[in-house]
Amino acid sequence: MTYEQAVKSRRTFAIISHPDAGKTTLTEKLLLFGGAIREAGTVKGRKNSKHAMSDWMEIEKQRGISVTSSVLEFLYDGYHVNILDTPGHEDFSEDTYRTLTAADSAAMLIDAAKGVEAQTKKLFKVCKMRGIPIFTFMNKLDRQGRDPFELMEELEDLLGIRSYPMGWPIGMGQSFSGVYDRHEKKLELYNPKNPKAIDVIQLTGPDDPKLDEAIGDSALVAQFREELELLDVAGDPFDASLIAKGELTPIFFGSAISSFGVQTFLEHFLKLSPSPTPRESTGGLIDPLNHQSFSGFIFKIQANMNPAHRDRIAFLRITSGKFERGMAVKHVRLGKQLKLAQPTQFLAQSRSIVDEAYAGDIIGLFDPGNLRIGDTLVEGSGFEFDEMPHFSPEHFSAITVKEALKHKSFEKGLQQLTEEGAIQLFKTYNRFTEQQIVGVVGVLQFEVLEYRLKHEYHVDIQLERLSFSFARWVDGPEDELETFKRVQRNLVTDRDGRLVVLFENEFQMRTATDKYPDLQFYENSFYRKK
Ligand code: G4P
């Protein structure tokens, strides 16, 4: 296989969804199609993930839930597919957002009975910011859900994205009979008694009498034809270029639990989704197809995966070129050479050593502490990829060390955890007594912080929860910024000294944005690069 073929066959994506929409189930089914696992139920302890908090403590002993599923790989029909795990439930954190920066596209999984839910909305925003293509899978059609037109409307109203149904369901819940593929003109029949036995019938179109014969229920068929006609007349047309820009999302309908619609989704997805995309860097756009030397960036760091060793694993997304075990690369920020000797790849429960990998792939690097989130590694002359954004935390606590004598270890631990991206650290701005404030996206991170400082740095801390819910990075004309700095309460600075304002609620936030129309309030720290 040539380098170009290897790159073009890669598909690296993340599944975004709200807890319980069926992400674990869908992932398992996808892996089954790829033959990556033999039995469903092995992706991760589903029950465990629902008790993520107590699990985290267990992680020190067992390390295995989100770790092993950080990236799942499988081969299907000549494609090399990488699925990035986006932790949900209580272990939802900034990591979840950052993982999306390593994806070239996203599959958005929606429970058809619930529609667009809170976590999906948050994750969608990050995908939107990056302009990556988003493919929607409406799940649980075997149960009574919302009207498909209503679901499409919700995508537009709540997420601001137009949609194009690639298929259209016939019935739902009790009456669910199948899905018609508008592109291939195929009818996939759903058999509730034996959902795994999926019959596929090739039709000449929706008016083909074979459809009446297969479904049997004439009222259902009439309703389906009417809806499809409406869709053809009033719906958006298929437009691959809008899909590629993330402005139009193709919708698929199915039932992950019975594998129904999953293969159709996978096949269309593989054809429509991009192979590893070019990335911005200080040296210009790095396109993996014409930049054949190795480059990549760190998007996630996980500490102490192996309890016997105090090492960390840094996850690297290869952006161009080919990785070969033992190769020497340049660590651009530190200006030194690194030998990539012991990289690992993750697949379901097993960890294996990688010998070679290509643009689009994710590898885990054992790291004694040289790497930070956002670091660039390159072969040859140096350039750096765009800074990794920080996202607005949603929970905040003032943090102090209990024993003053432990101050040094405390600072060291905080720095380490900040670099790993587990927490964000802010300092109060213009106050007589400086206070440190920790911000996190998911509350579990407070537990993680307390636990890790105690066990790794032997420091006991005091966390005092603060009532803020939003952080906004502020920028704008100097004079207005000066007034803002004098008058506004709850100002802090981030690790890089950038000005950030904390708000308790949307009302407070709106009041400030209305009062200072010339200032910009950013939801993430990415703005300086724009
Ligand atoms: P998550 O990772 O997104 O949190 O969701 P997960 O796959 O764990 O699925 C959440 C629940 O929804 C599970 O039920 C799962 O069986 C169910 N589910 C997933 N896909 C479908 C579907 O297509 N149709 C229906 N009817 N249910 C679906 P549970 O009772 O919470 O767990 P379990 O006892 O089945 O493991």
Features of this protein?
eight-stranded antiparallel β-sheet, binds guanosine-5',3'-tetraphosphate, Elongation Factor Tu (Ef-tu), domain 3, 530 residues, globular, Rossmann fold, alpha+beta, 3 domains, 28% strand, Alpha-Beta Plaits
Describe this structure in words.
The chain is 28% helix and 28% strand. It has 530 residues and is of the alpha+beta class. The chain folds into 3 domains: 12-272, P-loop containing nucleotide triphosphate hydrolases (Rossmann fold, 3-Layer(aba) Sandwich); 279-378, Beta Barrel (Elongation Factor Tu (Ef-tu), domain 3), CATH 2.40.30.10; 395-529, 2-Layer Sandwich (Alpha-Beta Plaits). The longest helix is centred in the middle third of the chain and has 17 residues, at 218-234. The strands form 5 sheets. An 8-stranded antiparallel sheet has the order 16-15-21-12-13-20-17-18. The protein has an 8-stranded antiparallel sheet with strand order 25-22-24-23-27-28-26-29. The protein contains 15 helices and 29 strands. It is globular and about 80 Å long. The structure holds guanosine-5',3'-tetraphosphate. Guanosine-5',3'-tetraphosphate is lined by residues 17, 19-25, 46, 139-140, 142-143, 255-257.
